[in-house]
Amino acid sequence: TCDEEAIRRLMRAYKKARPVGELILAFRAITKRGDFLAAKRVDDDGRLRGHYVPTAVSGRLQCSENPLGTGSNNQNVPRLPSPVRSIFVPDHGHVLVGFDLSRAEDRHVGGMSGDSKMMREALAGPEVDTYSDVAEMLEISAYFEDAFGPTTNEDDPILLRRPSVRAYYIRQTGKRIKLAAGYDMHGDTMSKSTLLETEGALMLDPRQCDVWLDSLKHKKRPGIGKYQAWVRGDMLEHGWLENSWGRRIYFRKLRLSDGDYRDGYAWRP
Fold first, then answer.
1. pLDDT tens digits, residue range 165-223?
2. How confident is the model over 132-175, as pLDDT tens digits?
3. Within 13 A of 219's CA, how many CA atoms are on the CB side?
4. Mean pLDDT of 60-80
5. pTM of the entire predicted model
6. Residue 252 CB partners (closer than 8 Å, separation 6+)
7. Which contacts qualify for 103-108: CB closer than 8 Å, 24 or more apart?
8. Rounded CA separation 38/183 (Å)
9. How far is 236 from 225, CA to CA, in rounded Å?
């Protein structure tokens, strides 16, 4: 198989698999990047247009190539260490401006948790970074030190040993733990999604992910469990959840599964 997750699991389990695995993954990465950067994806005016539809279970937009056959999924353009985002440039005399909702899902969960500490965090301004706080309280920097070695300098060929890259991914890990806990994810799922979304830059041990998630939910932020109980109660009482736009997601099964509940936790924010 050339499945990325399978290859990385083999590399983690067997040292002899690492040289071949690295070559396979490098080939996959270059092929994927080349496909995204193919000239055929761009329209004649130099713009890349995706097709957005609100059909995800969570209510989010999904993006794909447009009906004319150009464009692509523009929502998963990787950040560090990929250089792909640098291809997007503004017209002459203009600038690109990014708008961010500032922890929207995290604030929603905190605000509906009934937990006084989480509610204060939900109301705090952007100067309060709860993702970095989670990374600090769970001592993620110590895990990175053990897993990837000490930081060296910005020219180190091993990206996660560069101080700026390490700091970025430590915060990203705190963010992923916070959101995964809100969705009631398990460590294996969190590890897999992190691996794929970071194009293999961050390979987390699923068992360690379970430890982090358990500690956050049951010790550091017990209000997450209160939020989930509130969502489950709504699902069982009404058979549906409704958002502020009046859009509903229905749960008509005789017996709801863990997957149904996770859909509800993710959909509500």
1. 899 999 999 999 999 999 999 999 999 888 877 767 788 889 999 999 999 999 999 99
2. 999 999 999 999 998 888 999 888 877 788 899 899 999 999 99
3. 9
4. 85
5. 0.81
6. 239
7. 103/130, 103/131, 104/269, 105/179, 105/182, 105/269, 106/130, 106/131, 106/178, 106/179, 106/182, 108/268, 108/269
8. 35
9. 16
Residue 263 contacts residue 58 (beta carbons within 8 Å): yes
Q: Whole-angstrom Cα distance, residue 148 to residue 152? A: 11
Angstrom distance (rounded) from CA 29 to CA 22? 10
Question: Residue 133: what pLDDT?
Answer: 94
Structure tokens at 163: 């101080």
Query: What share of residues in the chain are helix, strand, coil (percent, to 5)?
Result: 55, 5, 40
Question: DSSP class of residue 46?
Answer: S
- Enter the tokens of residue 66: 């447009």
Name the more confident of 215 and 59: 215
User: What's the Cα-to-Cα distance from 19 to each of 10, 16, 159, 161, 182, rounded to whole Å?
Assistant: 11, 7, 17, 20, 37
Number of neighbouring beta carbons within 10 Å of residue 118: 23
